[in-house]
Amino acid sequence: MKPTAVLLLAGRSMARNPLRALLMMLGITIGIASLTALSTVGESTRRETMQQFKNMVGTYDIINIEPGTSATRGMPSLTTVPPTLKFEDATAIADQVDGITTVAEVQNAFDLDVKYRDKTTAVALYGISANWLEMHSYFIHSGNVLTDEDTSSLARVAVIGPDVQTALFPNEDPLGKQIRIGNVPFQVKGVLVTRGAGPGGSSLDSIVFIPVTTASKRLFNRDYLTTITVQLDDPLNPGPVADAVTAVLRERHGIVPPGEDDFTLSSPLAAAQQIADVDSTLTRVLTGVSVIATIIGGTVIMSLMLIAVSERQREIGVRRAVGATRRDILWQFLVEAATVSLLGGLVGTALGVAGGIFITLRQDMPPALLWTTIGWAVALSIGVGLVFGLQPAWKAAKTDPIDALRS
Amino acid sequence: MIEVKAIQKIYRRGDGTPVPALTDVSFSIADGEFVTIRGKSGSGKSSLMNILGCLDTPTAGSYLLAGEDVSGYDDQQRSHLRSRRVGFVFQSFNLLPRTTALENVEVPALYIEEPVDRDRARQLLQRVGLGERADHYVTELSGGEQQRVAIARALMNDPPLLLADEPTGNLDSAAGGSIMELLKELNRDGRTIVVVTHDEATASYADRELLIQDGRIASDRKRSGQPAREATAR
Questions:
Q1: A330-366 pLDDT, tens per residue?
Q2: CB-based contacts of A199: which residues, under 8 Å, 6+ apart?
Q3: Residue A183 pLDDT class (50, 70, 90 cuts)
């Protein structure tokens, strides 16, 4: 039998018995609707959490490489890290690893005194490559950013956080003024936009940025880095880049597994995802209930189809007599079950998406419409129809036409 | 058209005891004949009809339909045979409820490769005198009209053989008579028709009658094919 004919028969059968079709759809509709709504709300919450995370950390499409083993954790600083990660390592990574947008070098230290005339404040000092600021969502409020030119010329220029401006320049414009870090003079080149509190609760604004080369050669006189940051082409897939970076560094540092690495990779993405993907117990319970509702919907389809097969013995007999094969009959009833289930699922998907968007909007979250969710809902409803329609369809197909016509 | 040689049909009861329904049945029916198979209930005529209509297979013996030995065919092969070679007309019409006359006529066309030819279905309804009622639901039709729809359905895939099982059994004598007249006309157009009945009046329309008793052919005789007017009214 032609596929169009099978669909036509399914459609006619539903039209002939709309109440039965409605009853068959009901369970699937409820189950799929709640699954879709849960998924929509869940995705919204996840994106919201990721966004909050990005606001807090500045970025998540990066991998940070820090010296030392994973046992020696904490914020890296020149005074605490082993001197194993070099500028040449950063260059090698940039040259040899595919899938990265940029590589940034960092030398940083905490609690360094910065002076302007008679005023002093303690800051976090970051020697950075010019691209680091944008990578971490630090934006200039006034003046200019650090440039590659500053880096290559070892310029004594600094970009300061708003807290530093408040502490050192309460009544004047800091741009162009000379500050002293240690005993080295730096010219203030720019002031950053306020960021607020970071992940640890400390201020991200009590901070001074200078070129990493200047930091290394003129301030600290150290040739090792505290962090190398690589930015990913594909932010959601850090795995291959992480592997390639590990391989490059092991080779350069002469490490052969199972020897322990003298560096540690970390990605805020992993942490962000971990936070975002933590489902609440409630979500899990609701998902379970929805799945059960869908399965109950399937058993309703099965029992109503079984009744229909008994009621339609004569129809089956006639169809067999005029030339329908067992397979034709099997398909007819299977497709009928799947079509009803699909219709129920489509109604459920529409209701669920609408409900999910309604809930997220009420909670002031951006609604997230996931096509994969809709795809899964449609596939699940067809699947439920096929699975639970199989036994009734099989029973119909096995019907002996002679008995069926005699009944 | 039909050649039956030494056919046996043996059913088995639940405990395995064999119950013979047909014993050594042999006959042949030529193209264009109008034959009745007459017998009491339990005589084996239904078993014979199921075999002739390819709904069932004989336990032994051979059945040639249009020169093709179909006695060993499996379920699927017999399904395909039924769709092309045999048109069925039943005692209780067996139309699909909550469905129009036209849709009923189209049903056999679903099970062949060609697309459903709606015009042909309409023409067939015209042919059986129901052109005006094609779009009526079958429940709105009288018994005689329903049987006409069933005959149109049997003709949908243009089978050379029409098998009718007690086609007048559920009809009053006037309606039954007109159904037999219709079959007679179709026979005149060249279609081979086999009617299974226990009823003498119905049998009188045929040119030839096979009488079946206790699973055997008891007689095979020519008939006039012209029912006496009294014979029609039971």
A1: 999 999 999 999 999 999 999 999 999 898 888 888 7
A2: A56, A57
A3: confident
- The two beta strands, A157-160 and A207-211, are antiparallel
* Cα separation, A338 vs A393, whole angstroms: 11
**What is the spatial distance between Cα A396 and Cα A316, in angstroms, rounded to a whole number?**
7
Digit-coded pLDDT (tens) for B29-76: 999 999 999 998 889 998 999 999 999 999 999 999 988 999 989 999
B50 interface with A at CB cutoff 8 Å: yes
Least CB–CB distance from A324: residue in B79, B84, B99? B79
**ipTM given for this complex:** 0.93
Angle between the N-to-C axes of helices A18-57 and A281-311, in degrees from 0 to 180, rounded to the nearest 10: 160
* Structure tokens given for B161: 């053989």
Domain boundaries, given as residue ranges, for chain A: 3-53+279-406, 62-266
Name beta bridge partners: A224. Answer: A86
Arithmetic mean of pLDDT, A10-25: 90
Residue B62 makes CB contacts below 8 A (sequence gap 6+) with: B4, B5, B6, B7, B69, B71
Q: Rounded distance, CA B79 to CA A196, Å?
A: 79
Contact A183, A221 (CB under 8 A): no
Distance, in Å, from the CA atom of A280 to the CA atom of A57, rounded to the nearest integer, reads 24
CB neighbours of A203 closer than 8 A, spacing ≥ 6?
A161, A163, A196, A197
Asked whether the beta carbons of residue A325 and residue B96 sit closer than 8 angstroms, the reply is: no
**Distance (Å) from the C-alpha of residue A280 to the closest C-alpha of chain B?**
51
pLDDT at res. A196: 75
Which residues does chain B have within 8 Å of residue A319's beta carbon, measured at their own beta carbons? 107, 111
CA distance A266 to A89: 17
Q: For chain A, how big is the Rg over CA atoms in Å?
A: 33
Are the beta carbons of A7 and A335 closer than 8 angstroms? yes
pLDDT tens-place string over residues A119-159: 999 999 999 999 888 888 888 999 999 999 999 999 999 99
Q: How confident is the model at residue B231 (pLDDT cuts 50, 70, 90)?
A: very low
Is B84 in Cβ contact with A1 (below 8 Å)?
A: no
Q: Which CATH superfamily is domain B2-224 in?
A: P-loop containing nucleotide triphosphate hydrolases (3.40.50.300)
CA distances from A65 to A8, A9, A50, A108 (A): 62, 63, 22, 14
In angstroms, rounded to a whole number, what is the distance separating the alpha carbons of residues A45 and A7? 40
Long-range contact pairs involving A243-246 (C-beta distance under 8 Å, separation at least 24)? A244/A96, A244/A97, A244/A98, A244/A99, A245/A63, A245/A65, A245/A93, A245/A97
Q: How far is CA B184 from the centre of its chain?
A: 13
A363 φψ region: left (φ > 0), alpha (ψ -120 to 50), beta (else): alpha
* Cis amide leading into A211 (omega within 30): no
What residues contact B15, with CB distance under 8 A and at least 6 apart? none
C-alpha separations of B129 from A101, B133, B191, B206 in Å:
81, 9, 18, 22
Per domain, the residue ranges of chain B are: 2-224
Q: Which residues of B touch A5 (CB under 8 A)?
A: 110, 116
